[in-house]
Amino acid sequence: MLAVDVKKNVERPQSWKVINENRKALKKQRKQEKVLKELERAKKAEELAKVAEEAEAPKVNPSTISIAIPGSILENAQSAELRSYVAGQVARAACIFRVHEVIVYDDVCVSTARETKQNYDESNGSTVRSSSLQLARILQYLECPQYLRKFFFPLHNDLKYSGLLNPLDAPHHLRQQHAFLYREGIVTDKPAKQGQKFVNVGLLNEVLVDQAVEEGLRVTVKLNLNVENKKKLRGSLVSPDEPRRETGVYWGYTVRIAHSISEIFTKTPYKDGYDLSIGTSDKGKNVQGIGKHDLKFNHLLIVFGGLKGLEAALANDDKLDIEDPELLFDHYLNVLPRQGSRTIRTEEAVLVAMAALQEKLCPQNEEMEEMYKDLLPSSEDTGFTPYIQNNKKPKKRKFAEHTTIGDKETSNEFKNKLETYDVDNSITSDNNEPPNKFKNKFESHDVDNSITDNNERPNKFKNKFRSQDVDNSITDNNERPNKFKNKFRTQDVDNSITDNRETPNKFKNKFRRQDENNSIIDNNERPNKFNNKFRTQNVDNSITDNRETPNKFKNKFRTHNKDNSTTFNEEKGQFASENDDFEVVSAVHQINNSAIKEDSEDLSRFD
């Protein structure tokens, strides 16, 4: 039975005709799929070509606004701090109204200023007024992103009070956590491959660009944000106008110095110059007479006067023969008619004029709407925000405890148990057990917020000779430690010193000792400082000679007395001593002649 079932389950092989038909069907299917894929590729290529054509079409730069500020406005300030603050106000106004160029011009001019003995800086090869140079330096400092200032602005006296100035918070002042398409940076000296450079753009890692440019230059970098490896960033160098042209984001202003009011027009960076110029003065026409969007322009210039107005700046310029400043500008306007003050300061006039002309201006090439607005810092980001996020889970808050009063339960919002919240929203604080807010056990907090002192008070003194009472008074005990190392003085309770009778002997020998009143007593026993036994030293330091004196002579016929006299023995001969206390003993028996001669010589020496 098993063999029959196996034969039934075995399939019969297909014929060659069926196999060939199946193969032909698969080939047709594959050819159709291939044709469909080619059609899809062709469509994608056409779309990419259209996108490339649109990208290659050059976009027109939007219209620009330039303002001209006289450098003499800093000389009217009373202190160095105020000079810096005036420059900061001008920078803030230029950033708020999206100004693209700030021109600092000299309204006093070189010849007039030298006659008035004003300071000039000639370090750059050209004569520049010091006030104009300081204003331009502060404007550039505030426009530069914070992470690049240490590279481009070393310590300088003009920037001494730059820390007092308000920051611009411009869109191109990006934080480290903001991933924007464009960034300002500086070319570093970090080694790279030939034709490549590393640029510091304020991120943790430097960006590698494919252009080899000079080190230390400020550049604008377009980042490639599609790279998965964030440690190896790549980008390309672009024009400073591209961020504003491509994204519509305000990208700061440039600063230019003009030596006179005529150089404002002659040294313009634009090819066709300024097509619309406006002068501001209290002698001009009323700005309200201009209609809405009547001032059409591509490159607008607004010139502000100094302390003496545009008339003085025009009179000090030798290159211009015009006396009326109204002939120099297309429009000569009074931006604030019926002003309350006699004069308007220049830094105030910038804000007033830009606000009054907002509705009057009509740019030919308007700026596009800001793209990537969510990636830029907003007003909420002003100030310090930590870059590292805290991933710790917040602690769960405990629910308010409930206390039962009568038949109802009310939540107790008080942390301590001394006050309870009643049903009628009244507060009961008559609990008998108040907490002890003191760390020690010697003071307790009562219900009426009074403090009760306990009798037990800790001893805050390290020794046992003083104790602190309940009333914070100090009691001295009778036992006082001996602060002296020896046993001859003790300290009493009243901090007095008692000398004991026994005082140590500070002398090394036993012949002198010190009494309790620090007097010295000499003992009678005095050591003999002489090597021989024939002299002794007394208590009064006197010397006593003993009777027996040694014989310094080698023979036995002479002896040496204590008075240094010489005595002849009987065996030698007779000698008369000069001292009457001793008698001369005569008699000498037989001696040699040589010995007698020697004795006679000795006698003659003693005489």
Protein model, in words:
The protein is α/β, with parallel strands linked by helices and 607 residues long. Among the domains are: 64-168 and 253-363, 3-Layer(aba) Sandwich (Alpha/beta knot), CATH 3.40.1280; 182-247, Beta Barrel (OB fold (Dihydrolipoamide Acetyltransferase, E2P)), CATH 2.40.50; 558-606, no CATH class. 22% of the residues lie in helices and 20% in strands. The protein has eleven helices and 31 strands. The protein has a six-stranded parallel β-sheet, covered by helices on one side. It has a five-stranded mixed barrel with strand order 5-6-7-9-8. A two-stranded antiparallel ribbon has the order 3-4. α3 (80-96) packs across α5 and α3 runs parallel beside α10. The longest helix is centred in the N-terminal third of the chain and has 41 residues, at 16-56.
Annotate the secondary structure layout.
Elements: H1 2-9, H2 16-56, E1 64-70, H3 80-96, E2 101-105, H4 110-115, E3 120-121, E4 128-129, H5 130-143, H6 149-152, E5 182-187, E6 197-200, E7 207-209, E8 218-223, E9 233-238, H7 242-247, E10 254-258, H8 263-266, E11 276-286, E12 295-297, E13 299-303, H9 309-315, E14 331-334, H10 346-356, E15 361-363, E16 401-405, E17 408-412, E18 420-421, E19 427-428, E20 443-445, E21 451-453, E22 466-468, E23 474-476, E24 489-491, E25 497-499, E26 512-514, E27 520-522, E28 535-537, E29 543-545, E30 558-560, E31 566-568, H11 593-606
Parallel strand pairs: 1-2, 1-13, 2-10, 7-9, 11-13, 11-14, 12-15
Antiparallel strand pairs: 3-4, 5-6, 5-8, 6-7, 8-9, 16-17, 18-19, 20-21, 22-23, 24-25, 26-27, 28-29, 30-31
Helix pairs in contact: 3-5, 3-10
